[in-house]
Amino acid sequence: MGILIITESFIYEKKGAELAIIFNDVTKIYDSKIALQNFSMRVNPGEIVGLLGPNGSGKTTALRIAVGLLKPSKGDVIIMGHSITHNPEEAKKYIGYVPDEPPLYENLAGIEYLQLILELWGYDIADKMNEIDELARILDMQLELNDLISSYSAGMRRKIALMAALIHDPKVLIIDEITANLDPKALASLAILLRGLKEHNVAILISTHILEIAEELSDRVVILHAGEIIWTGNPKEFRKEVSESKRLEDIFFELTGGPEVEQIINYLRRYTK
Ligand SMILES: Nc1ncnc2c1ncn2[C@@H]1O[C@H](COP(=O)(O)OP(=O)(O)OP(=O)(O)O)[C@@H](O)[C@H]1O
Ligand SMILES: [Mg+2]
Asked: Atom 16 in ligand 1: which residue has the minimum CA distance?
Protein backbone atom coordinates (compact mmCIF):
# COMPACT_ATOMS: atom_id res chain seq x y z
CA MET A 1 0.00 0.00 0.00
CA GLY A 2 2.77 2.40 1.04
CA ILE A 3 4.72 1.59 -2.08
CA LEU A 4 1.65 2.21 -4.25
CA ILE A 5 1.13 5.66 -2.72
CA ILE A 6 4.78 6.60 -3.23
CA THR A 7 4.60 5.39 -6.82
CA GLU A 8 1.45 7.43 -7.51
CA SER A 9 3.01 10.52 -5.96
CA PHE A 10 6.09 9.96 -8.04
CA ILE A 11 4.05 9.77 -11.23
CA TYR A 12 2.18 12.94 -10.29
CA GLU A 13 5.44 14.66 -9.44
CA LYS A 14 6.64 13.90 -12.96
CA LYS A 15 3.35 14.80 -14.64
CA GLY A 16 2.53 17.64 -12.31
CA ALA A 17 5.35 19.96 -13.23
CA GLU A 18 3.02 22.08 -15.41
CA LEU A 19 0.13 21.88 -12.94
CA ALA A 20 0.58 24.05 -9.89
CA ILE A 21 -1.59 22.17 -7.36
CA ILE A 22 -2.83 18.60 -7.59
CA PHE A 23 -4.90 17.09 -4.81
CA ASN A 24 -4.70 13.38 -5.45
CA ASP A 25 -7.42 11.38 -3.70
CA VAL A 26 -6.96 13.05 -0.32
CA THR A 27 -8.86 11.72 2.70
CA LYS A 28 -8.57 13.14 6.22
CA ILE A 29 -10.04 11.36 9.21
CA TYR A 30 -9.92 13.06 12.64
CA ASP A 31 -10.39 10.35 15.29
CA SER A 32 -13.35 8.66 13.62
CA LYS A 33 -14.76 11.70 11.80
CA ILE A 34 -14.20 11.93 8.04
CA ALA A 35 -13.45 15.61 7.34
CA LEU A 36 -12.39 15.14 3.72
CA GLN A 37 -13.08 12.17 1.47
CA ASN A 38 -11.34 11.16 -1.77
CA PHE A 39 -10.72 14.79 -2.60
CA SER A 40 -9.12 15.26 -6.04
CA MET A 41 -8.78 18.57 -7.85
CA ARG A 42 -6.22 20.65 -9.71
CA VAL A 43 -5.26 24.28 -10.07
CA ASN A 44 -3.37 25.50 -13.12
CA PRO A 45 -0.87 28.35 -13.15
CA GLY A 46 -2.75 31.58 -13.81
CA GLU A 47 -6.03 30.15 -12.54
CA ILE A 48 -8.09 31.29 -9.54
CA VAL A 49 -10.08 28.43 -8.04
CA GLY A 50 -12.66 29.02 -5.30
CA LEU A 51 -13.16 26.23 -2.79
CA LEU A 52 -16.74 26.84 -1.71
CA GLY A 53 -18.61 25.09 1.08
CA PRO A 54 -20.64 25.70 4.23
CA ASN A 55 -19.10 25.70 7.73
CA GLY A 56 -17.48 22.39 8.55
CA SER A 57 -17.41 21.13 4.94
CA GLY A 58 -13.63 20.54 4.96
CA LYS A 59 -12.17 23.66 3.30
CA THR A 60 -9.59 24.50 5.97
CA THR A 61 -8.69 20.82 6.27
CA ALA A 62 -7.99 20.63 2.51
CA LEU A 63 -5.92 23.83 2.51
CA ARG A 64 -3.90 22.87 5.60
CA ILE A 65 -3.06 19.54 3.98
CA ALA A 66 -1.98 21.33 0.77
CA VAL A 67 0.47 23.55 2.66
CA GLY A 68 1.89 20.72 4.77
CA LEU A 69 0.42 21.77 8.14
CA LEU A 70 -1.74 18.67 8.36
CA LYS A 71 -0.97 15.11 7.30
CA PRO A 72 -3.52 13.42 5.06
CA SER A 73 -4.87 10.05 6.23
CA LYS A 74 -4.67 9.00 2.59
CA GLY A 75 -3.59 10.57 -0.70
CA ASP A 76 -1.18 13.40 -1.42
CA VAL A 77 -0.91 16.95 -2.74
CA ILE A 78 1.61 17.85 -5.42
CA ILE A 79 2.80 21.46 -5.52
CA MET A 80 4.68 22.51 -8.68
CA GLY A 81 5.69 18.90 -9.22
CA HIS A 82 6.74 18.19 -5.61
CA SER A 83 4.88 16.00 -3.13
CA ILE A 84 3.96 17.87 0.04
CA THR A 85 4.18 14.57 1.93
CA HIS A 86 7.44 13.18 0.57
CA ASN A 87 9.27 16.35 -0.44
CA PRO A 88 7.80 19.07 1.78
CA GLU A 89 10.85 21.34 1.83
CA GLU A 90 10.85 21.67 -1.96
CA ALA A 91 7.04 21.94 -2.26
CA LYS A 92 6.81 24.66 0.43
CA LYS A 93 9.24 26.93 -1.45
CA TYR A 94 6.48 27.65 -3.95
CA ILE A 95 3.66 28.30 -1.50
CA GLY A 96 2.27 31.48 0.00
CA TYR A 97 -0.42 30.69 2.58
CA VAL A 98 -2.80 32.99 4.44
CA PRO A 99 -4.82 31.27 7.18
CA ASP A 100 -8.14 32.76 8.31
CA GLU A 101 -6.64 33.74 11.67
CA PRO A 102 -2.93 34.13 11.04
CA PRO A 103 -0.53 33.41 13.90
CA LEU A 104 1.92 36.34 14.09
CA TYR A 105 4.74 37.61 16.29
CA GLU A 106 2.92 40.14 18.45
CA ASN A 107 6.01 41.96 19.70
CA LEU A 108 7.36 42.82 16.27
CA ALA A 109 6.38 45.80 14.18
CA GLY A 110 4.80 44.84 10.84
CA ILE A 111 7.94 45.76 8.92
CA GLU A 112 10.11 43.73 11.32
CA TYR A 113 7.88 40.74 10.79
CA LEU A 114 8.26 41.06 7.01
CA GLN A 115 12.01 41.39 7.46
CA LEU A 116 12.07 38.19 9.53
CA ILE A 117 10.10 36.33 6.85
CA LEU A 118 12.47 37.62 4.15
CA GLU A 119 15.50 36.51 6.17
CA LEU A 120 13.99 33.04 6.55
CA TRP A 121 13.60 32.88 2.77
CA GLY A 122 17.17 34.13 2.31
CA TYR A 123 16.37 37.56 0.85
CA ASP A 124 17.91 40.90 1.66
CA ILE A 125 15.19 43.34 2.75
CA ALA A 126 16.82 46.15 0.72
CA ASP A 127 16.10 44.22 -2.49
CA LYS A 128 12.46 43.86 -1.52
CA MET A 129 11.72 47.35 -0.21
CA ASN A 130 10.03 48.51 -3.44
CA GLU A 131 7.80 45.45 -3.42
CA ILE A 132 6.91 45.99 0.24
CA ASP A 133 6.03 49.62 -0.47
CA GLU A 134 3.87 48.61 -3.42
CA LEU A 135 2.02 45.90 -1.46
CA ALA A 136 1.54 48.27 1.49
CA ARG A 137 0.13 50.91 -0.85
CA ILE A 138 -2.33 48.48 -2.47
CA LEU A 139 -3.45 47.13 0.92
CA ASP A 140 -3.48 50.52 2.61
CA MET A 141 -0.90 49.47 5.21
CA GLN A 142 1.80 52.12 4.69
CA LEU A 143 1.19 53.96 7.95
CA GLU A 144 0.79 50.79 10.03
CA LEU A 145 4.01 49.00 9.04
CA ASN A 146 5.96 50.62 11.85
CA ASP A 147 3.35 49.79 14.51
CA LEU A 148 3.55 46.71 16.72
CA ILE A 149 1.50 43.77 15.47
CA SER A 150 -0.11 43.54 18.94
CA SER A 151 -1.81 46.86 18.15
CA TYR A 152 -3.24 45.65 14.81
CA SER A 153 -6.93 45.16 14.13
CA ALA A 154 -8.08 41.78 12.80
CA GLY A 155 -8.12 43.18 9.24
CA MET A 156 -4.58 44.58 9.56
CA ARG A 157 -3.41 41.19 10.84
CA ARG A 158 -4.74 39.56 7.70
CA LYS A 159 -3.13 42.20 5.50
CA ILE A 160 0.31 41.74 7.07
CA ALA A 161 -0.13 37.95 6.75
CA LEU A 162 -0.98 38.47 3.10
CA MET A 163 2.11 40.62 2.58
CA ALA A 164 4.23 37.98 4.34
CA ALA A 165 2.73 35.26 2.12
CA LEU A 166 3.49 37.20 -1.07
CA ILE A 167 6.92 38.58 -0.29
CA HIS A 168 8.89 35.56 -1.59
CA ASP A 169 7.03 35.61 -4.94
CA PRO A 170 5.13 32.32 -4.50
CA LYS A 171 3.91 30.47 -7.57
CA VAL A 172 1.05 29.06 -5.53
CA LEU A 173 -1.10 31.30 -3.32
CA ILE A 174 -3.55 29.73 -0.90
CA ILE A 175 -5.93 31.94 1.08
CA ASP A 176 -8.37 30.49 3.59
CA GLU A 177 -11.70 32.27 4.11
CA ILE A 178 -10.92 35.07 1.72
CA THR A 179 -13.36 37.57 3.23
CA ALA A 180 -12.32 37.00 6.89
CA ASN A 181 -11.99 40.34 8.70
CA LEU A 182 -11.60 42.34 5.49
CA ASP A 183 -13.89 45.28 4.79
CA PRO A 184 -15.27 45.80 1.25
CA LYS A 185 -12.48 48.23 0.35
CA ALA A 186 -9.75 45.80 1.50
CA LEU A 187 -11.47 42.95 -0.33
CA ALA A 188 -11.58 45.03 -3.54
CA SER A 189 -7.84 45.76 -3.17
CA LEU A 190 -7.20 42.07 -2.66
CA ALA A 191 -9.29 41.24 -5.75
CA ILE A 192 -7.14 43.61 -7.82
CA LEU A 193 -4.00 42.05 -6.37
CA LEU A 194 -5.22 38.54 -7.19
CA ARG A 195 -5.88 39.53 -10.80
CA GLY A 196 -2.34 40.93 -11.06
CA LEU A 197 -0.90 37.70 -9.67
CA LYS A 198 -3.02 35.67 -12.07
CA GLU A 199 -1.53 37.68 -14.96
CA HIS A 200 1.87 36.58 -13.63
CA ASN A 201 0.79 32.94 -13.78
CA VAL A 202 0.41 32.41 -10.05
CA ALA A 203 -1.99 29.57 -9.20
CA ILE A 204 -4.50 30.81 -6.64
CA LEU A 205 -6.72 28.70 -4.40
CA ILE A 206 -9.12 30.57 -2.13
CA SER A 207 -11.82 29.32 0.19
CA THR A 208 -15.14 30.91 1.10
CA HIS A 209 -18.57 29.89 2.35
CA ILE A 210 -20.28 32.58 0.25
CA LEU A 211 -21.33 31.68 -3.29
CA GLU A 212 -21.38 35.26 -4.57
CA ILE A 213 -17.81 35.87 -3.40
CA ALA A 214 -16.59 32.69 -5.10
CA GLU A 215 -18.45 33.69 -8.27
CA GLU A 216 -16.96 37.14 -8.29
CA LEU A 217 -13.36 36.18 -7.62
CA SER A 218 -12.82 32.74 -9.16
CA ASP A 219 -12.44 31.32 -12.65
CA ARG A 220 -13.75 27.99 -11.40
CA VAL A 221 -15.40 26.77 -8.22
CA VAL A 222 -15.16 23.46 -6.42
CA ILE A 223 -18.10 22.95 -4.08
CA LEU A 224 -17.50 20.89 -0.94
CA HIS A 225 -20.21 19.44 1.22
CA ALA A 226 -19.52 17.20 4.23
CA GLY A 227 -15.99 16.55 3.00
CA GLU A 228 -16.92 15.60 -0.56
CA ILE A 229 -16.85 17.48 -3.85
CA ILE A 230 -20.43 17.78 -5.02
CA TRP A 231 -19.99 20.12 -7.95
CA THR A 232 -17.20 21.74 -9.90
CA GLY A 233 -17.18 24.12 -12.83
CA ASN A 234 -17.76 27.68 -13.94
CA PRO A 235 -19.66 29.41 -11.12
CA LYS A 236 -22.24 30.88 -13.51
CA GLU A 237 -23.19 27.35 -14.61
CA PHE A 238 -23.86 26.33 -11.01
CA ARG A 239 -26.86 28.65 -10.75
CA LYS A 240 -28.32 27.12 -13.92
CA GLU A 241 -27.92 23.57 -12.63
CA VAL A 242 -29.34 24.32 -9.20
CA SER A 243 -32.90 24.50 -10.54
CA GLU A 244 -32.62 20.92 -11.79
CA SER A 245 -31.36 19.27 -8.61
CA LYS A 246 -33.01 19.25 -5.18
CA ARG A 247 -29.69 18.36 -3.51
CA LEU A 248 -27.88 21.27 -5.18
CA GLU A 249 -30.78 23.58 -4.36
CA ASP A 250 -30.54 22.80 -0.62
CA ILE A 251 -26.82 23.48 -0.66
CA PHE A 252 -27.32 26.60 -2.76
CA PHE A 253 -29.39 28.13 0.04
CA GLU A 254 -26.73 27.26 2.60
CA LEU A 255 -24.15 29.14 0.52
CA THR A 256 -26.04 32.22 -0.62
CA GLY A 257 -25.30 35.37 1.31
CA GLY A 258 -27.82 38.00 2.45
CA PRO A 259 -28.21 41.68 1.46
CA GLU A 260 -24.85 42.58 3.07
CA VAL A 261 -23.11 40.31 0.59
CA GLU A 262 -24.89 42.09 -2.26
CA GLN A 263 -23.40 45.36 -1.04
CA ILE A 264 -19.92 43.87 -0.93
CA ILE A 265 -20.31 42.52 -4.46
CA ASN A 266 -21.52 45.91 -5.75
CA TYR A 267 -18.49 47.52 -4.16
CA LEU A 268 -16.15 44.89 -5.61
CA ARG A 269 -17.56 45.43 -9.10
CA ARG A 270 -17.29 49.20 -8.85
CA TYR A 271 -13.60 49.03 -7.99
CA THR A 272 -12.38 46.03 -9.95
CA LYS A 273 -14.16 46.36 -13.29
N1 LIG B 1 -8.57 19.23 14.81
C2 LIG B 1 -9.75 18.65 14.59
N3 LIG B 1 -10.17 17.60 15.32
C4 LIG B 1 -11.35 16.99 15.08
N5 LIG B 1 -12.20 17.37 14.10
C6 LIG B 1 -11.84 18.41 13.33
C7 LIG B 1 -10.61 19.12 13.54
N8 LIG B 1 -10.51 20.12 12.62
C9 LIG B 1 -11.64 20.05 11.89
N10 LIG B 1 -12.43 19.03 12.31
C11 LIG B 1 -13.74 18.64 11.73
O12 LIG B 1 -13.56 18.45 10.34
C13 LIG B 1 -14.67 18.99 9.60
C14 LIG B 1 -14.15 19.97 8.58
O15 LIG B 1 -13.62 21.11 9.26
P16 LIG B 1 -12.95 22.32 8.48
O17 LIG B 1 -12.38 23.22 9.51
O18 LIG B 1 -12.04 21.77 7.45
O19 LIG B 1 -14.22 22.97 7.77
P20 LIG B 1 -14.37 24.36 6.99
O21 LIG B 1 -15.05 24.05 5.70
O22 LIG B 1 -13.06 25.05 6.94
O23 LIG B 1 -15.39 25.16 7.93
P24 LIG B 1 -15.51 26.75 8.22
O25 LIG B 1 -16.31 27.35 7.08
O26 LIG B 1 -16.28 26.78 9.50
O27 LIG B 1 -14.14 27.32 8.35
C28 LIG B 1 -15.61 19.56 10.63
O29 LIG B 1 -16.61 18.62 10.90
C30 LIG B 1 -14.76 19.76 11.86
O31 LIG B 1 -15.51 19.59 13.03
MG1 LIG C 1 -12.39 26.87 7.66
From this structure: 58
